[in-house]
Each structure stands twice: as C-alpha cells, then as structure tokens.
Amino acid sequence: MAIKITTELLGDHPALSSVDFGKEFSTSWIRGGDGFVGFGIWKSTTVSGANRFADARKWWREQLSNFEIHNNVHGSGTGPILFTSFAFDEDQPSHLVIPEIIVGQKSGKSWITWVGDDPQPAFTNSPEEKSHPTITWSQGSLADDDWQARVANAVTRVKSGELDKVVLARDLVATASSEISIRALIKNLEAKYPSTWVYQVQGLVGATPELLVRLSKSLVTSRVLAGTIRMTGNESQDLALAASLAKSSKDLEEHEYAVRSVADALAPYCSSTNVPDSPFVLHLANVMHLATDVTGVVNESAIPVDIFTVISSLHPSAAVCGTPTPTAKRIIDEIEGMNRDRYAGPVGWIDARGDGEIGIALRCGLISADHLTVRLFAGCGIVAGSKPEDELAESQAKLSPMRTALETL
Fold first, then answer.
1. pTM
2. In sequence order, what are the residues at sequence separation of 6 or more whose Cβ sits closer than 8 angstroms to the Cβ of residue 245?
3. What are the catalytic residues?
4. What domains appear along the chain, each with residue ranges and CATH number?
5. Which of 157, 257, 263, 301 has the fewest CB within 10 Å, making it most exposed?
6. Contacts of 4 (CB under 8 A, 6+ apart)
7. Residue 221: is it exposed, middle or buried by C-beta count within 10 angstroms (0-12/13-18/19+)?
8. Mind listing the pLDDT tens digit for each residue in 7-17?
9. What distance separates the 2 farthest-apart alpha carbons in the chain?
10. Distances from the Cα of 172 to the Cαs of 137, 340, 369, in angstroms?
11. CB-side exposure of 130: number of CA atoms within 13 Å?
C-alpha cells in the first residue's frame, strides 16, 4: 500500500531551530534562517563500500516508489527529503534518514511535509534549554606534538615530489557534565555563523562553509575553500590579513589544487563550466578562507546525471584529501593516525526530483549516543610551504566554532 506524503504551505514563518512537535529534533540544514529541520525518523539505513553512493540512490528511489506524494507547494526542497551523511572512507557506515515531519523555509515562504494520513501536525516554539553543562577537554587520537611531527613528515613527502598536497586532520574530545542539547548547539552555531550551512544528521553536528555540490534543475554549483588565515577581531588588522591571504603563494597553491580537482570532476557531466580566474576572500567569525564558486550546466544526455553521480565524482576533493587524490589518500591512511568517521564526508539533503545541497562535513563534532561526549575534528592542507606550528594554529582556529558553541550552551 502506498504511503501518503503531504506538503502544504505554512502561514507562519517560524525560526527553524525553535520549531517543536514533541518529537526528536532529528535533522537540520539551515543557512541564514532558511533551510530545513526534521522531526522523528520515519525510516533510516546505512550504506558502505565502494558502491555506497549507488546504493544510497537505489534505497532512496525504492522509498520514493512507495510514496503517494501530495505536494501543494512545489519547487526545490519541497516534498519528501532524504538527509545524508556519508563517511569519509568507504568502509565506514554512511547514514541516510527520512524524517517523519519536515519544516522548510526559503525566501519568506514556509512549508511542512509529513508522512501518514493524519492532518497537518501543529507545532509550537521549543522551550529554552535549562541545562548548562560544564565542558572538559582532552586530547584526541594524537597529542599536539605528535600531530605536528606527522605534518613535518607530510611536508617532506611533498617536497620530495611524491605528491603536491595532502590534508591531515586531527580530533579533540569534549566531555559534558550533563546531556548536550543538539537543538541548543544548532542555535549557537546558527547565531554565530549565519553564512555557513548548519547541519545535523545522526549525531553529526556542525557549521560548514564549504558546499561540495548544489544541483538545481540542470545548474550545478560547488564552493571550494582552501587557504586559511585566522581572524584577530581587529578590523584594520583583519583587512591587512585578508590582503596577505589573497597574495600568499602557499595558500594560492593549495587553493589551485582544490579548484582544479572540482573543475576536472565536473567537466565530464557539464556542457559548460565557469571557473573564476582568481578566488575571493570569505570572511567568517573565526577565520578567512580563499574561496571559489565553480558552476556548470549539466549535459542533456541519454544517461541522466543526478546528484549521487556528482557526489561520487567529487568526493574526496583536494580540499579534504589532496593532490593527486590516490596518493594523498594513501598517505592519509599511513600517517594521519585516526579514523575520520563522517568528518570531511558529504552531508546534506536530496529531494524527490534529485535536486539537493551537499556540503562537506567540516567544523563539526560527532555526539555520542548518550549526548555526554563530542569528538571534534579539524584538518589542514599541507603543501611544500607548510610549517607544523602554523598548521596546528590553523587547526585550533577551525576547532573554535564547535568549541565555542559547546562552551556557551
């Protein structure tokens, strides 16, 4: 029997992270107040292995074939939505989630989608969170000195000509005195980093500035970030730092590798692509990045290209792995010294038409099932001009969004 899925407009325009249905606040994807939040889990699964993106597509299409969709809103992101969180490595589990209820909002229009024959669910605003846990910090997989030694090893291998760039990640562990509220964490990240995509899927929570791919009809977009400098909070100093970042040969080299890897991956599927000649400087609350928006128009061919196809070609990009990718991945496996889990993997949403937004899971933490510990992640692109002490400082800057969000719960 077909499963009814209904989408209707909402008269109100709620603050997405404050909506409450008395169900688990299960998924979110919010940027600048717009996006989606999901409640409850209607169905979920995991995929892994070399065919995980194809397996995810197959599972999503199987679910769609069982739906009787009543969509009175139409447009990208309306109707049933699949939330995805893929692991960095293919042998780790990747998570797929279809919420029971989804509230969406875009450009002043709000809507609700729900599973089942019941009337439109009524929502309220969530109460203020009462718990203010004390957070204590401990080393992750590697101590700082050990991680810096591995960065030095990577620099030596780059200088030897073995590869052009490799991304090394590290982790940090937070332990809370009482349960961490994911909703409160999302609100903190959304308030501090409104220009990022604030997400949560199956315990992975973060605020990523990097969009792996957006597919809207036939237009594909990827925002590439590589090259980073820490903000000081002093406006004149930060302007000078932004100018130095834009001229830094080390950062421009790192950025060029990342942009090239994305453009090359998109080219087979696009009739045309646009790659700007030079990056712009993206200002966030904690850091500045060199950024480039690569765009393309998908070919109208006999073989349809969907977002799963594009994800499988783009991941892992040079921004989170290195160049050349196979060599960089091998060196990561040899010297990084930790399991990335879903850090630096594709995360986001896909609708019934195949449109969607998939970010790279950066500036994030993986929350334990009991909500008492969080494993935070950060990574740095290592090229010939990298210095271990500078990379450690950069990683600490990239850890600060989640650190601050946790410490201000």
1. 0.94
2. 227, 228, 229, 251, 281, 288, 290
3. 165, 210
4. 3-117+133-407 (3.60.120.10)
5. 301
6. 67, 68, 70, 115, 116, 117
7. middle
8. 999 988 889 99
9. 65
10. 7, 12, 17
11. 0
